[in-house]
Automatic annotation (TrEMBL):
UniProt record, GO biological process: phosphorelay signal transduction system
InterPro entries in alphabetical order: HPT_dom_sf (IPR036641), Sig_transdc_His_kin_Hpt_dom (IPR008207)
PTM annotation (Phosphohistidine): residues: H57
Residues in HPt domain copies: 18-112
Species: Kordiimonas sediminis
Protein's name according to its UniProt entry: HPt domain-containing protein
Gene Ontology molecular function, alphabetical: protein kinase activity
Source domain of life: Bacteria
UniProt xrefs under Pfam families: Hpt
Keywords: Phosphoprotein, Two-component regulatory system
Length: 112
């Protein structure tokens, strides 16, 4: 189970931006994850490799800023899949890993 409350990354982020801004960033990350849960599978289904790569990259960066490494790694796999035009890896497995990490991260953020 992911516990972001003890994450050094989260503690540094709070120190850098303050508690109020951190809460706003947390809400923005929740929205970004929820949007990605809708858009990334659609990009895969539509074989829109460019948008898959771009959105997965953005989600990866946002996840890393909160120390959500499993989600960031899953996004990296989706980004690479988009870069390869769908030839490098198993789309279903990659998407399942993303979904699992997204749900785990959402639950962890909501506990902050």
């Amino acid at each position: 189970m992911l516990d972001l409350r003890q994450s050094a990354t989260v503690q540094q982020l709070i120190s850098d931006v303050g508690e109020d801004a951190f809460l706003m960033l947390s809400e923005a990350l929740i929205a970004e994850i929820q949007n990605a849960q809708q858009s990334l599978p659609r990009y895969l289904a539509d074989k829109d490799w460019h948008m898959l790569e771009v959105d997965a990259h953005a989600m990866k960066s946002a996840a890393r800023s909160f120390g959500a490494e499993a989600l960031a790694d899953a996004c990296l796999d989706l980004e690479k899949y988009g870069q390869s035009s769908g030839t490098d890896g198993d789309a279903k497995a990659i998407l399942n890993t993303f979904d699992t990490a997204a749900v785990e991260t959402l639950n962890a953020i909501k506990k902050l």
